[in-house]
Amino acid sequence: MDQEIRMIEDRLDSTGAEVFHGRRFCQGTIHGVQVVTAISGYGKVGAAATTATAIEAFDAAAVIFGGVAGGIRPDVNIGDIVIGNRLVQHDFDASPIFERYVIPSLGTAEIAADPDLTEQVAAAADRYISTRARSEIADIPEALFEIEQMKILRGLIASGDRFIGSLAEAATLQGELPDVLAVEMEGAAVAQVCRESDVPFAVFRSISDRSDQDAEFDFMAFVASVAAPLTAGIIDEWARALG
What is the pTM for the complete model shown? Predict the structure, then answer.
């Protein structure tokens, strides 16, 4: 989102921005590491198009996708970081030709993230949370979000072109995909494009809400006050370790 990308670009030694297919890409370095930043846009189509453009136009060696998500499993709380080691499109159904959720071009439902890049991102998240998060997220509204201790979880993230904003919808999704930790609208599309392009990828998400009736309010407030510095801080730590 705009707030997140601005905070990343503030850390960027920029060499300029270009527009391809209506999408703005900013090039530069963070701690000496060459990066290209872009806003994916809402939904799977926009995220897939942005990812494909980044890979094609900039010959991206790897893709790291960050942002926010709603928690699904009971132990996933607001403020936690979920690292997606697998991703699934929860609204994809080509049955009876293929089993539900299976992507025909890949022959699988769950798309595995690159293990090495995922380890790098997880380590960066751990460093940021343990050393810098509390001082850099000074205005965190703990009374609202009930954030006691941010934790990092790894597992399945589900993506679909629908904002999950009720307990009934969340319960249905958990019933259909018992292993799912979090739900959002883009990650699995990014994963599909990267897998088909043979480009390593990693996905991390800040948990902004509990996918319930308060999701809309929690989501917008969380992005502005918490998710943006978290996303930028994790990317900064990742680049610092490589630079």
Answer: 0.91
